[in-house]
Amino acid sequence: MRLRAYFRLVVIATAIGSLLYAFQRGRRSFMDEEDNPAPFPSDGFEKTEFAFARLRYQPMRNGYYGRAGGSWATDYPKADRQFVQGVRRLTRIHTRSVEQVVDLESDEIFNFPWVYATEVGRWDLKEGQVKKMREYLLKGGFMMTDDFHGTFEWDVFMASMQRVFPDRPVVDLENKEEIFHVLYNLDDKFQVPGIQMFYTGRIYEQDGIEARWRGIHDDQGRLMVAICHNMDLGDAWEWADHPRYPEKYASLAYRIGVNYIIYAMTH
Amino acid sequence: MFEFFFHYPRTAFSKGEVVLLAGMPVWVLGLLVVVAAAGLAWVMRLRMPEAAVGIKGWRPAVIWVLQSAMVTLVLVLLWKPALLISELKPQQNIVAVVVDDSRSMAQADVGKSRRAQAVEALEGGLLKGLEKKFQVRLYRSGAALQRINKLEELKSEAPATRLGESLKQIAAESAGLPIGAVLLLSDGSDNAGGIDLETVAELRSRRLPIHTIGFGKERAERDLEISDVQVAPRTLADSRLAAQVSFHQSGYAGQKAKLTVKDGGKVLASQMVTLAPDGKQQSETVLLNSGTAGAKTLSFTLEGLTGEENGLNNAVSRLVNVESGKRRILYIEGEPRWEFKFIRRAKEKDRAIQLVSMLRTTQNKIYRQEIENPSELLEGFPSRVEEMLGYHALVIGSVEAGYFTAAQQELIKQFVDRRGGGLLFLGGRSSLSDGGYGQSALTDLLPVTLPDRKGTFQREPAAAELTPAGADSLICRLVEEPGRNTERWKKLPALADYQDVGAPKPGAVVLAGMTVGNRTLPLLITQNYGRGRTAVLATGGTWRWQMSQALEDQTHEMFWQQLMRWLAAETPGRLVSSTPQQILFDNGRLVMNAEVRDRNFLPAADARVEARILGPEGLAAQVELRPDAANPGSYQMEWEAEKTGSYLVEVMAKRGEEEMGRDVLTFQRQDGVAENFRTNQNKELLEKLSAQTGGEYWRPSDLEKLAREISYSEAGITVRQTKDLWNMPVVFLLLLLLRGSEWILRRKWGAV
């Protein structure tokens, strides 16, 4: 009886220890916030050079859609896992098969110099987060934003972004920008729609009729923030395997994603 | 005292030859000594039974030794010992009296100047004593030797002392004049690099003894003097330069002094130094920024302290040619990595380095950055010599050895060995052991012996730390003060990954290590290879130093800029000019060498090398360098810079119409500066000079016997003298001692 009690104690202690270890190693689980669950690959714990880092931020309260939680996790984790398969296949980047969720609460983000933030038309960065974001970007971090549409969401995005960089303008990226040529030549870009087009028949959302490729540069002219406005690359990655989702959108979304990563790893 | 016992001065014995004048051969003397000793022994043995009770055991042997010694001494005296010595013939020889007339002789050590002390010594009887026996010629020695008629002509104004040159001139004069000896009155402060072996050999061949009289304190009571400054004569713009300043002091031990480096009026660096004990050489490293391109004269000054006897030896200047050209580094990376990005960013602020990179983004695509034209590296990694040799350094990232063809591997070897380029290997998934370098031709270039296994690269954190060698290295200097620098390294964020690169090869230097668990592995290892240098940085994870430290922290940038400059700055061009002495003190003789290489960086013996010299007043000369037949590719010239000031030499090498290379060299002529240094009496030099030429070193207070002893010389017109030795008081004393000792012992032992 006593032996059994000891055995239970050891099992519980091991379980708690393992959880703590996993937490410390950045393996926080966000299963309850998953938008579109995907299988966890067998090599998901591999240590690699690059991991798809998804920014977990606090959403705007009382937002336009009335949905006030989990916008950071839109398409998560299926889009992430499906996209990195492409990164692995198309490039020589040693890439982890599983994404990494990072936030602006801890310094963990500094270990991931490329970060993806989706639905930033709903974000609302707090003062400490703004400071950390600015520091992250100026040190050499790179942020790609996606899946926000129209004037209202732009304004919401900018409300936080302008606090990160009050003096740096957001500029429309011309075709000659290096980010569009670092691997694939992306002179012919077009709007990449989300799956809402299945229901609405439109490739744009809200009043975001025209896709905008924008960015914020640092003092040396390097892009720190690549802003994909009025498009939904995340959906294109997520639904690339869907028979009804057009290949041309998925292909472009992959090429853009790959270029943005390689640009971030070279500039 | 010596002369009392031995009848003649010590010099006579050291210069003369002891001979036996009796007609009988010396072997007979030896035989008689043996027979006498044996006879004494035989007689003593016969008489032993009758001997007194006290004479037994070892005592008879003592008696025998004393008696044998006495018999031997008597026998030697019978053979008429004598001293054969050459002496200068009275009134037929010249004694050259050379007085140092340089500025240092004006220094007042003991209330009066050294010159006044010398004049006093000469007028106090020395000159008269010499004039009784010899003709005396007076000379003064400054930049050259000059004859004078009277001592009043001494002014101590010569800006330089060239004792070697003066003595060489005396030796030359002695060929036509009966100069029997030289008397040199000096403080020994020679600022032309001492007295060369050639001069000493000439004086010895003429058997001309140099007697020296030393003036001045052997050590100043209160003085601070910079003895040397070592700094690279050429560097890149905005480079960090390390200058090694050596100095010594007396009278200020433990005090603090301010060491300042200036370029014109601009202070480049300044630091306080604590002075070491009296007379002890100490050196301090000063770090400074080279600034913009151009020829610079840096002055290094130790601020004077209260009561210093000589304030003119606290500053020295050095020339540094800050080059404007860029150094091109080729960085090949086999896969996109954060390290690649952050190295590029770290280098960006360094305008003197151009980091040309080629990155394999996909299996068949290469992304090129900072290329000079669209065709550069278009075909991939260079495979032609001229293409490869256009770079000054090469960085190999996570690239398998097999990516390079055998010819390319050979090219990389030549690049380091023959071209003199720098080569850095970075740790990575496909680097070093994991990339198959252990089995490749490139393994020779590595400063480490790679482990014979795979899996040496691990994506686990590692903590970097400096080794003692790294603490002295400019590559690893993140904070100027060495102690704080070591501490700074300990506080660096962990590296993102590490690679076990095995053990350093003999001759390699480990500048930094890293701790992984309880193991310590080498992190940064460097070595010289051929004309170039190679290094291994066993990680691909220094980028965390950038991302995980404060935004304003410059550690990562500084480390990489310094490592890149170490890799590329020293890589020579096709024409390299040099001079053994950049600052010519009181002498305008410039010696310049040039080394010329062809397109393949092989020595070019058929070049035409010309130097265009721009002096303080514009173009001074155009001189062609002559090839050195014994050393293909080397060219030399000598030229006289007549005016003081700074000179710039533009050197150009041509082969037919093809220009092979250009280089710029700076030098300076300074007159009257060197004389302010090493002003203490250089007794060592004077003693050595006397000893090497058969003369003697004298103190000014001990000159009574000089006039007599100077006559023992083999130079000039001499007469061979034979001096009896039998009548030396020491002989009689010895006889008395031997006999007396025997008597006392016999009495003590009851035999008398």
Q: Name the overall outline of chain A.
A: globular
- Main beta-sheet annotation of chain B: 9 strands, mixed
Overall average pLDDT of chain B:
90
Helix and strand pattern of chain A: HEHEEHEHEHEEHH
Q: List the strand order in the largest sheet of chain A.
A: 2-1-3-4-7-6-5
- Helix/strand-derived category of chain B reads alpha/beta
Oligomer: heterodimer
Low-confidence stretches of chain A: 19-26, 62-69
Q: What is the count of β-strands of chain A?
A: 7
Please name the two chains that share the biggest interface, counting residues whose Cβ lies under 8 Å from a Cβ on the partner chain: A-B, 28 and 30 residues
Estimate percent helicity of chain A.
25-40%
Topology:
The complex is a heterodimer of chains A (267) and B (752).
Chain A: H1 2-24, E1 53-56, H2 78-90, E2 100-103, E3 114-118, H3 127-139, E4 142-148, H4 150-164, E5 171-172, H5 196-200, E6 212-217, E7 223-229, H6 233-238, H7 247-264
Parallel strand pairs in A: 1-2, 1-3, 3-4, 4-7
Antiparallel strand pairs in A: 5-6, 6-7
Helix pairs in contact in A: 3-4
Chain B: H1 2-6, H2 10-15, E1 17-20, H3 26-47, H4 59-78, E2 81-88, E3 94-100, H5 114-133, E4 135-141, E5 145-148, H6 163-173, E6 179-186, H7 197-205, E7 210-214, E8 223-230, E9 234-236, E10 240-250, E11 256-263, E12 266-274, E13 282-289, E14 294-302, E15 315-323, E16 327-333, H8 338-347, E17 353-360, E18 366-369, H9 385-388, E19 393-396, H10 406-417, E20 422-426, E21 448-449, E22 457-458, E23 463-466, H11 468-471, H12 482-490, E24 498-499, E25 503-504, E26 509-516, E27 519-529, E28 532-537, H13 544-547, H14 555-568, E29 575-578, E30 583-585, E31 589-596, E32 608-615, E33 618-624, E34 626-627, E35 634-640, E36 645-655, E37 658-670, H15 683-693, E38 697-698, H16 706-709, E39 718-724, H17 729-748
Parallel strand pairs in B: 3-4, 3-6, 6-7, 7-38, 9-15, 16-17, 16-19, 19-20, 20-28, 30-37
Antiparallel strand pairs in B: 1-2, 2-39, 4-5, 8-10, 10-13, 11-12, 11-14, 14-15, 17-18, 21-25, 22-24, 23-26, 26-27, 27-28, 29-31, 31-35, 32-33, 32-36, 34-35, 36-37
Helix pairs in contact in B: 3-4, 4-17, 6-7, 8-14
